[in-house]
Design brief:
With 167 residues, the chain is an alpha/beta fold. The protein is built from 6 helices and 4 strands. Strands 1-2-4-3 form a 4-stranded mixed beta sheet.
């Protein structure tokens, strides 16, 4: 099975990134690819920003002038993963997470920041892989089931906190 190389950048100074978050993000990205049966070498970038930065990106790329929690920028058409075998690395895309918003939502929903950032990462990975929930219905249900499956596998289901394993 190929692994995903996860490039993580912190472009904000408002919130300290908790210990273990980078490892959690890498595990989330790998688990999403594994669930999809994707065995290609792949690369994804994850960037931490604040609410102001993500609002600016949301306005520029989606014409929605408000902050959001996560944005996904795929680098290819999703079908390519399932129809083409390649020798080189797939550049899956970019994930942008507002750490400020993630902390707000973790508090609002009553769970850990690890659970929130884990969810946002997995959610965004499935967007990068071609899943969409915007129109609701069966596609939204399928996406949510896949998200929860990955989070359960990683030990961070709804209402629980992420516990680091000795590696």
């Amino acid at each position: 099975m190929g692994k995903v190389k996860v490039l993580i950048k912190n472009e904000q100074k408002d919130v300290k990134i908790p210990t273990g978050i980078r490892l959690l993000i890498r595990r989330c990205c790998n688990a999403a690819l594994q669930l999809e049966g994707i065995d290609q070498e792949a690369e994804v970038s994850v960037t931490f920003v604040n609410n102001e930065q993500i609002q600016s990106l949301n306005a520029k790329y989606r014409n929605i002038d408000r902050e959001t929690d996560v944005l996904s920028f795929p680098q290819f058409e999703a079908e390519e993963f399932h129809t083409e075998k390649r020798d080189d690395i797939y550049m899956i895309g970019d994930i942008v997470i507002s750490v400020e918003k993630a902390f707000e939502q973790a508090k609002l929903y009553g769970h850990s920041i690890q659970r929130e950032i884990g969810f946002l990462t997995v959610h965004s990975m499935f967007h990068l892989l071609g899943y969409d929930h915007e129109e609701g219905g069966l596609k939204a249900v399928q996406m949510r089931e896949k998200e929860e499956s990955v989070l359960m596998q990683l030990g961070i289901p709804r209402g629980s906190s992420y516990v680091m394993e000795d590696e």
